[in-house]
């Protein structure tokens, strides 16, 4: 599967390496092309997954703010619920296509 935006492949991995949580595909950290990601200060909290951190996605001098998120420290019990450790796996929104 690939995550693409503005003509760039942001992440790519076989589907079996991804984790599907609540309708979102999470890519393993080593599948993410880090040159397109810039950490930002946004954080949100999921009641069962914990606090998410966000990246801006930057391609060809265009920025898609907070288009990617991840959980650096998943909430206790959430990994067991998902049945796979999703620490630092990256998911996308804001127009990033995942297919």
Task: Tell me what the structure shows.
The chain is mainly beta. 5% of the residues lie in helices and 49% in strands. It contains one helix and nine strands; from the N terminus they run βββββββαββ. The radius of gyration is 13 Å and the shape is globular. The relative contact order is 0.26.
Features of this protein?
99 residues, single chain, Metal Binding Protein, Guanine Nucleotide Exchange Factor, Chain A, mainly beta, 49% strand, four-stranded antiparallel beta sheet, globular, three-stranded antiparallel beta sheet
How are the SSEs ordered, and which strands pair?
Elements: E1 2-5, E2 8-12, E3 19-21, E4 24-26, E5 37-46, E6 50-59, E7 62-70, H1 78-82, E8 90-92, E9 97-98
Antiparallel strand pairs: 1-2, 1-9, 3-4, 5-6, 6-7, 7-8
Considering the protein shown, what is the CATH homologous superfamily? Answer: Domain of unknown function (DUF427)
The side-by-side strand order for the widest beta sheet comes to 5-6-7-8
Kindly state the mean pLDDT as a whole number? 98
The N- and C-terminal alpha carbons lie at a distance of 5 Å
* Helicity range: under 10%
Q: What low-confidence regions span 5 or more consecutive residues with pLDDT below 50?
A: none
Class from helix and strand fractions: mainly beta
- Please provide the ordered H/E string of secondary-structure elements: EEEEEEEHEE
CATH top level is Mainly Beta
Count of folded domains? 1
**Strand residues, percent:** over 45%
CATH architecture type: Beta Complex
Helical segment count:
1
Q: How many E strands?
A: 9
> What's the main sheet like?
4 strands, antiparallel
Shape, please? Answer: globular
The name CATH uses for the topology is Metal Binding Protein, Guanine Nucleotide Exchange Factor, Chain A
Radius of gyration equals: 13 Å
């Amino acid at each position: 599967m690939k995550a693409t935006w503005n003509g760039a492949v942001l992440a790519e991995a076989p589907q079996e390496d991804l984790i599907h949580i609540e309708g979102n595909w999470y890519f393993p950290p080593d599948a993410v092309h880090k040159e397109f990601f810039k950490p930002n200060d946004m954080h949100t909290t999921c009641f069962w997954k914990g606090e998410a951190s966000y990246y801006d996605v930057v391609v060809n001098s265009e920025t898609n703010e907070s288009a990617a998120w991840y959980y650096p420290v998943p909430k206790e019990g959430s990994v067991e619920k998902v049945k796979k450790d999703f620490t630092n796996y990256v998911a996308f929104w804001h127009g990033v296509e995942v297919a």
